[in-house]
């Protein structure tokens, strides 16, 4: 990542200044404690995943004048096809309500403007919905992003009705050309993230594993992909998403496959920085660790697929919003997301 040390600040007044982060090490010093304190159940490895595929200059940090430690951050995530996502909008609790959020917001919008981003979305918490509405964002009428969870599978076994049919084969994602994953996602969501689904980004992480249900292995084209999913480590245990699928049977099949992998051994093999769970016994992990997913209610089958495999509502939704109400076609009324998107990748980047 380029150094931004010498560039002029994106914003500056007598008390604060905003500049781009100089890299993941600097960003993580503030981002990871924020994630842990907010209980947002992210993973240590998520930050590079969020940032490295984006065409924007990276995370924006706000500093008190003379201070070395940032007190808030935000990022304009810019995808390959001029769509974008409002990401990682957090200000330290002690500094909230003083206009820092607004200053960060304006600097982020400037990044979008410079990058020529045409469609901008976000997944907002309920508390900030009014704030985003004042800034021109309109909630999708199709549905919310529902946080769902369940205990680890832990040898309990899964329902045996997860077969997708004789013509389908389950393969690890390494066997699927990664550009096909990006193409499949683009088709279903209208968002193109060619540089996210790559060996250099997501698949270099030690904790990322994925599976695809395909008509033939290796798949020759995007039409050969029936479903796919990914698991990652997060604070509470394991995160599953996205789940993209042709139909509910295929969705259930890849979800069950991922759930079987998210076991105690997986958690123990991949400790996260400064996490209490690192010292837990296997028994405690078995009892307390969870799987989490962000399930899209705009697909009428999505919640049922998860519920049938023992998942339940975690008690909160993200509100999917689009600037001026302009969503990609695939995520508009009648778009392919309504039947193909079961769980999103991550509310932080859509
Ligand atoms: C969201 C967040 C980053 C805002 O940061 P902040 O520094 O408090 O923001 P500001 O002081 O600039 O206020 C932001 C807006 O909320 C309004 N606001 C601030 N405090 C408020 C309060 N107590 N009641 C009502 N409105 C308030 C401001 O008027 C401002 O609106 P404007 O931009 O239209 O003028 C901060 O609240 C936060 O970190 N929350 C926890 C993390 C989170 O939920 N992030 C959003 C995820 S979607």
From TrEMBL:
Q: Where is the N-acetyltransferase domain?
A: 16-153
What would be an example GO MF term here? acyltransferase activity, transferring groups other than amino-acyl groups
CDD domains annotated for this entry?
NAT_SF
InterPro entries noted in UniProt: Acyl/Acetyltrans_Enzymes, Acyl_CoA_acyltransferase, GNAT_dom
Q: Name one Pfam family in it.
A: Acetyltransf_10
Record's PROSITE patterns? GNAT
Know the name of this protein?
N-acetyltransferase domain-containing protein
């Amino acid at each position: 990542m380029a150094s931004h040390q010498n560039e002029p600040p994106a914003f500056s007044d007598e008390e604060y200044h905003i500049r781009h982060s100089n890299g993941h090490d600097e960003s993580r010093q503030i981002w990871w404690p924020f994630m842990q304190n907010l209980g947002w159940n992210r993973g240590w490895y998520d930050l590079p995943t969020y940032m490295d595929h984006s065409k924007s200059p990276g995370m924006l940090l706000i500093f008190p004048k003379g201070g070395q430690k940032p007190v808030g951050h935000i990022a304009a995530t810019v995808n390959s096809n001029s769509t974008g996502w409002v990401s990682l909008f957090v200000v330290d609790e002690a500094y909230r309500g003083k206009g820092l959020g607004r200053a960060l917001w304006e600097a982020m919008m400037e990044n979008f403007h410079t990058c020529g981003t045409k469609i901008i979305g976000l997944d907002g918490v309920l508390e900030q919905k009014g704030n985003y509405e004042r800034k021109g964002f309109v909630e999708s009428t199709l549905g919310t992003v529902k946080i769902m969870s369940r205990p680890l599978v832990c040898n309990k076994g899964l329902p045996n009705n997860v077969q997708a049919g004789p013509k389908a084969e389950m393969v690890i994602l390494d066997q699927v050309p990664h550009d096909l994953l990006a193409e499949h996602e683009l088709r279903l969501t209208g968002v193109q993230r060619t540089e996210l689904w790559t060996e250099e980004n997501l698949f270099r992480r030690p904790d990322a594993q994925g599976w695809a249900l395909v008509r033939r292995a290796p798949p020759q084209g995007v039409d050969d992909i029936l479903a796919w999913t990914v698991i990652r480590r997060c604070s509470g245990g394991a995160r599953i998403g996205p789940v993209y699928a042709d139909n509910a049977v295929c969705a259930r099949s890849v979800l069950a496959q991922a759930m079987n992998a998210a076991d105690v051994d997986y958690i123990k093999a991949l400790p996260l920085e400064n996490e209490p769970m690192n010292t837990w016994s296997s028994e405690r992990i078995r009892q307390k660790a969870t799987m989490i997913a962000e399930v899209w209610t705009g697909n009428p089958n999505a919640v049922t697929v998860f519920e049938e495999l023992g998942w339940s509502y975690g008690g909160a939704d993200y509100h999917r919003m689009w600037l001026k109400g302009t969503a990609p076609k695939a995520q508009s009324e009648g778009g392919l997301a309504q039947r193909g998107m079961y769980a999103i990748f991550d509310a932080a980047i859509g």
